[in-house]
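Minutes, project check-in
Item: structure for the 184-residue chain
Input as provided by the requester:
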Amino acid sequence: MSFDFSDVKQRLDKAIDHVSRDVASLRTGKATVQLLDPVVVEAYGSRMKIAELASVQAPDATLLVISPWDKSVLSNIERAIATSDLNLNPVVSGDVIRIQIAPLTQEKRMEMVKVLHKKIEGGRVMLRNLRTDAKKEVESRKGSEGVSEDDIKFDLQKLDELIKEYMGKLDTISAAKEKDLLTI
């Protein structure tokens, strides 16, 4: 009887999705709406993401425009961006906030590549931990009725192939973002 890998795949997909979102927030010198994902704004007595309070647009590669739906939170959004660790300078212009994105220096680009590699390594650790958990689940079936040693050996091989596939996805994410970071 073969092991059901659907739960394992679901957890692996979540890990890849988490790393993708984390990597997307890395600043490349180009304006992207994902750049503001980590920013949390104090509004209406709770902590909210900018996307929940405003529309964010990138009309060109050097500008972000934030249009709050409720103009009363404009100063809260500006303060949250200014105090975030993204080193952005928000400027209120009427009912919108404009953020000029300065091009990155070569030194800053190399620093961002190092951060990227740390985030990807964190993703690899997540995948290895998931592999360990899944391996324990597969091996716990040893001695169960209808499960042979060959079934377990086959399932462990299948698990290794699955992990290798997901490690490849991490490598693809890393290569694409690194290219993005190093492109001027």
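Outcome recorded: The longest strand covers residues 54-60.
No further action items on this chain.
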